[in-house]
Amino acid sequence: KRLYQSVYEYDLPLFNPAPCVFQFVSPEESDLANPWKESFRQLYRGIHVRPGYQDLTFKGRNLVYFNTIQAALDYADERSGSNSTTGSVSSGHSEGANQGALIFLHAGTYRGEFLVIDDSDIALIGAAPGNVAESVILERESESTVMFVEGAKNAYCGHLTLKFSPDVTSTVPHHKHYCLEVGENCSPTIDHCIIRSTSVVGAAVCVSGAGANPVIRHCDISDCENVGLYVTDFAQGTYEDNEISRNALAGIWVKNNANPIMRRNHIHHGRDVGIFTFDSGMGYFEANDIHNNRIAGFEVKAGANPTVVQCEIHHGQTGGIYVHENGLGQFIDNKIHSNNFAGVWITSNSNPTIRRNEIYNGHQGGVYIFGEGRGLIEHNNIYGNALAGIQIRTNSDPIVRHNKIHHGQHGGIYVHEKGQGLIEENEVYANTLAGVWITTGSSPVLRRNRIHSGKQVGVYFYDNGHGKLEDNDIFNHLYSGVQIRTGSNPVIRGNKIWGGQNGGVLVYNGGLGLLEQNEIFDNAMAGVWIKTDSNPTLKRNKIFDGRDGGICIFNGGKGILEENDIFRNAQAGVLISTQSHPILRRNRIFDGLAAGVEITNNATATLESNQIFNNRFGGLCLASGVQPIVRGNKIFNNQDAVEKAVANGQCLYKISSYTSFPMHDFYRCQTCNTTDRNAICVNCIKTCHAGHDVEFIRHD
């Protein structure tokens, strides 16, 4: 151990089991009887650069020392050219014979050495106690600190600090120079190095050119005044377990058809984006941790097409992933969370694939698609975001399918400003505002979604929101299942709308819409409300089992109701009130627990060829002064329970309890000073108010 540490200075035995592989193994974990001795043997062929030691000879040992790296490289060149010297230095061990030169750089700062490595299998490795790389520093102020060029196939550089510190005042242009440069047709291994550049242009590490295919692992590329790692011009390479942080520009740039593989890197606290792929850059990015960058965690631009899997992209000071200007990319199985802006932004004709990600706890929305963005958004779990789970606006047209969008502090899906989109088979639930909002000229297509359990409306069309809502299940909302207002004109077809704490569908404030072949049932208030100058068309719907009325039309509501089946509702099948004037044709209104059709409060209606039958109260109940247009209706087999009760002397309260006033003659009592708001039925007038001063108000 003492001998080993006097020669190599390491705290632990270092083994070289294969080309480009150097591993420290603590003696306790080693299977060898004497790991120090075995390590000494494996490293014995090495040449040492140790300033001030070149006059030293170890008794009986053939160890070579140089003052400069260049001298050691020259010696290695000579030695490999002459078999006789190779034989003597490697002392006959087979490991040494088939491996390239091994050069140990001992502690110190090496300035001004110009290292261009073109030798197939030379290895440069730091040698010092403690943290080796921190003690062995190569530094330059112009040209690149270390360059690997064609020929350096199995070269190795490890456990060193590489610094590039150009003089800021110098006029020598250095934008083409880097701390570490890997050129075409070479594949060195860079391992456990600390890489620092103070150049305000360029990058700390540049890998460029066809056939550039390095392995860079366990390196620390941090605190640089420019880009950390720059891969370009068809270069590839494997980049694993590196620390890339606090750089002034992007942590990583990938451009111009470069296609690296990057795994398990930690990219954080950059003063720009984490990873930037652009100009047709590609790459495979797996299990990287990308966080706390000042701009997006991952940016894709200008035809770039990266694959990003199982990464965690979080706590960005703006967004998580930003795809723009015809960007592509596959983002699969990532965790994207806690970003200040949207988790994913897609804009300007970009068309990425976003699959099976968790997108959550964003300080704004989950996925934000705008400015003619596209994209396939599928099988993601999007939840707990401060704004909409998915927002589609300004002529964007994505495909959104099989996502879960839930527990948002805002709405689920928000489509506005002429947004489009094909939105299919998602589950949208438990959001604070509407499950889906569609507004301002937007016209998405929503099919086969489950939209439920929201704290407000299920699907909300307003301010000229259009589109198609087909074959969805919309249920269990605190407000209406569907609301349509202010010029919106959607097609709503084949949906099941049920279990709402309010109405099923509410059309108001000038709303339109075609509602066709829907099932609307078990809502706490009317199945469909039409009010305030709205004019929808309802055809062939089934509106049933409501806990209130079937369809309520009031405050100037209109509407064309054709061929609907309205049955088994707790209140009137159709209630028409306050200046409304709908048209009802060929509907069947039956088996209601109250009246079939009631018209009151100066409303009117056109009723043609409807069948009104088997309702508990009357079939068609008209208040005083109401004169609808009536043609060819069949009104039969209604139970007329109100008339029967009156005829039998019963109080109507027995019929309706306190939930409603059925249509009947009602009175007021001057003696008891009641107003016409107190509907006193004729039997109470006869019994309770006998001998009082009473007057008939109206039939209503």
TrEMBL record:
GO biological process assignments: regulation of apoptotic process; ubiquitin-dependent protein catabolic process
Residue span(s) of domain Carbohydrate-binding/sugar hydrolysis: 234-370, 386-508, 524-653
NCBIfam families: para_beta_helix (TIGR03804)
Top-level taxonomy: Eukaryota, Metazoa, Ecdysozoa, Arthropoda, Hexapoda
Lineage: superkingdom: Eukaryota
Example GO molecular function: zinc ion binding
Zinc-finger in keyword set: yes
Recorded metabolic or biological pathway in which this protein acts: Protein modification; protein ubiquitination
Protein's recorded name: F-box only protein 11
GO annotations of cellular component type: nucleus
Compartment(s): Nucleus
